[in-house]
Amino acid sequence: MDFSLAPIAERVRAAAADQTPLRIRGGGTKDFHGLALHGEVLDTRGLRGIVNYEPSELVVTVRAGTPLAELEALLAERGQCLPFEPPHFAKTPADGATVGGMVAAGLSGPARASVGAVRDYLLGVTVLNGKGELLTFGGQVMKNVAGYDVSRLMAGAWGTLGLLTEVSLKVLPVAPGEATLRFEGINQADALRKLHAWGGQPLPLNASCWVQDGGVGTLYVRLRGAVAAVEAACKTMGGVRMGDNAAVAADWAACREQTLPWFADRAQRPDHALWRLSVPATAPALALPEGAEPLVEWHGALRWVQAPESAGEALRAAAHAVGGNASVFVAASTGGTGAKGLFDLKSTALEQIHARLKHSFDPAGIFNPGRVARAW
């Protein structure tokens, strides 16, 4: 075992013996999300550094406490990237999302619907379980799994299964061609119809966002791929091609980091939570409570809604009616920093599977208790 891990493993074993809860924490940029934050902080930021990077193989192995910005900068130097665009949610320059936190949260940015999620790029992990044992799953190539793909369980587990110490990720080259088209004066229903129609065509769709911009419905579509494919799509899809890609990139980053004016408006309504509705991309405009005009991403599959938590029943019903689900992403609280987000697990069978997995990896229940489920 790495010398830097020895004291951490010893602390985990002592915590398991004493039934002392531990809160695994990297940069803490996503502390706002989840049911509750309990336990002594177990800081992972000492576990940092690039273990191995093979640009020609499109694989990087990195320690979990490494700042995400540091990894992205390294990849950018070689013309590569994390295509799923993980959000940082850093509120100040001193904040720093970590690679381990990125995997544990399992959150993806605007390109998610086109390129896949965090878990799709996770090749392998090393994790410290609730017994203080260091376990390795997966490897550094795509076809490396015989049996259960255990490494992907860690994506979106919010640290409840163990402490990530090292992860191996697939990366991709930055697309040579890019353009953003703007369709102004289009309502949500028409925007969704366009997105559905384009989704059935061989177009280099990468990201989309429909929002009420100054009271006017506007659809933004980002194209990425071969230069010829992007140029051809710009000619056939219509809309207005936005200018300098570098300037437009700041807007897409604001969408990813939830700093667009639409998200910022919630500060004027502290009784409103930010709801996340995950639905089939082909779902029509939903019957939402009055005044709850959504921001739509992922070609229709992700709908953000600002509404009081008391509107939860109506929002869940609207999402369930089309085969989706709804959950609180940021609780209603001053500054939007409350750790009260609610996860929408309605299946008893699914809850039982989660509980059994939790017990297998963390039998004493010491890691992030109550973060994703009240029972554990």
Descriptive account of the structure:
The longest helix has 14 residues, at 348-361. A hairpin with a 4-residue loop joins strand 15 (295-297) and strand 16. The protein has 376 residues and is an alpha+beta fold. Helix content is 26%, strand content 25%. The chain has helices at 6-18, 68-77, 99-105, 112-115, 188-199, 227-237, 245-257, 261-264, 312-321, 348-361, and strands at residues 22-25, 40-43, 50-54, 59-63, 80-81, 122-128, 134-138, 163-170, 172-173, 177-184, 205-213, 216-225, 240-241, 272-278, 295-297, 302-308, 325-330. The protein is globular. It contains ten helices and 17 strands. It has an eight-stranded antiparallel β-sheet with strand order 13-10-12-11-15-16-14-17, with helices on both faces. A five-stranded antiparallel β-sheet has the order 3-4-8-6-7, with helices on one face. It has a two-stranded parallel sheet with strand order 1-2.
